[in-house]
């Protein structure tokens, strides 16, 4: 996290910093997810990831609206944690040749991203409450729910008989 890139003095500053952090993350994720969709041969995983690309684009739009409501231009803050998670995902994908192992590795890498996102959105919701910014709560909660839902389905890809499940998500 670029802790030294901005001076953080207040809860408002911390909220804006965290918003820029997750904005950077979401914009990185919409670049890595299509790479994973190309790599996997698992039809269910392709559908899950494609759906999450669409959700991620909507999540970026929600963040844009919060920036605008704050009177700030939407901007990401480069984050070493995100860069590291994505570099590791690309590295792992390049090292695996077995298709079933690759599918499990992709699902596992995306879960790393989802858990990072969940922690950021949980924090933003807590900070928005502290700042009395009730108007930010619904869009942030909507996104958090999508991240949790994506994570719940991705874990099934890494479990036995992953291709035998069915459900409303797809
Ligand atoms: Fe997201
Ligand atoms: Fe996500």
Profile the largest sheet: none
CATH class category label: Mainly Alpha
Number of helices: 5
Strand content: under 5%
Q: What name does CATH use for the topology? A: Ferritin
Poorly predicted residue ranges: none
Distance between the termini: 34 Å
Radius of gyration: 17 Å
Which small-molecule ligands are present, each listed once?
fe (ii) ion
Please identify which CATH superfamily we are dealing with.
Ferritin, core subunit, four-helix bundle
Number of structural domains:
1
Number of strands: 0
Provide the residue-averaged pLDDT: 92
Percentage of residues assigned to helices:
over 70%
Which assembly state applies to the chains in this document?
Answer: single chain
The secondary structure category is mainly alpha
> Any guess at the CATH architecture?
Up-down Bundle
The ordered H/E elements are: HHHHH
Overall body shape = elongated
Task: Explain what this protein looks like in three dimensions.
The structure is a single chain. This protein has 170 residues and is mainly alpha-helical. It has a single domain, classed as Ferritin (Up-down Bundle), CATH 1.20.1260. 75% of the residues lie in helices and 0% in strands. The chain contains five helices and no strands. Helix 1 (11-39) runs antiparallel to helix 4 and helix 2 (43-69) runs antiparallel to helix 5. The protein is elongated. The model has no long low-confidence stretch (mean pLDDT 92). Bound molecules: fe (ii) ion (FE2) (2 copies). One fe (ii) ion binds at residues 52, 56, 113-114, 117, 147, 150.
